[in-house]
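Predict the holo structure. Ligand: nicotinamide-adenine-dinucleotide.
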Amino acid sequence: MARLALVTGAARGIGRAIALELARNSFDVAVNFNHSAEAAEALVKEIEALGVRAGAFQADVSDSKQAEELFRKVREALDPVGVLVNNAGITRDTLLMRMKPEDWDAVLSTNLNSAFYCTKEALRDMARARWGRIVTISSVVGLTGNAGQANYAASKAGLIGFTKSIAREYAARGITANAVAPGFIDTSMTEVLKDDVKAVIAAQIPAGHIGAPEDVARAVAFFAREESSYITGQVLAVDGGMTMC
Ligand code: NAD
């Protein structure tokens, strides 16, 4: 029987590419979305056309109750979660002096708290099955910091410490926890950047261009594989060579 993967914030961008890549790798897929029901339903159809089962599940994963409910619904409609991809994320960029507590709280609760809530729920299923893969989408900014992104960088660095701690706690139970740290990837999150800014960024990337959501998705699928069972607590940058740290 196919294992079930749950991808948070999967209606578009990197999450969408991850959901499709996992389906191509024969996982059944639960698509979590917050507001984009139509896009999530369309994605479910695309996934089903690949010959696996799928479902769309609404939840704001920054809310612990909604995260708990999400796992209950997924379990009931499909299966217990075998692969969790903590992907949902937002930015509220501004220099620290202008950053309001609400900008800080929104980013920390969406990017970091959501991973805590969802991972805790997923681990119940995974510990029972003595098998699990947790893959968390961090960012190279969590490794290097970035001016104007103190809240975002703190959340993404927090996810790395979180991932390594979970990896240590659960390694003996057949459960791995790894992080993927994308560089600049072409999605709605980066489309707000002007073309000249994108050109400056691309000039700093040894590969010479901004990445695609599929580049990140393939790294996630690698960690989700059966054969990746001895790889845990790792952070894999998918950034065209930008950071190399
Ligand atoms: P995106 O804005 O296209 O996608 C983010 C998704 O998360 C959206 O579908 C959004 O609705 C969902 N989401 C946000 N808050 C949510 C909540 N509370 N509950 C459920 N879903 C929620 O951006 P993206 O570029 O695809 O980003 C995906 C992940 O990759 C994020 O964690 C982001 O921080 C990370 N990332 C992106 C880049 C990049 O360059 N695009 C670089 C590094 C890391």
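The first strand starts at residue 4 and ends at 7. The first helix runs from residue 13 to 24.
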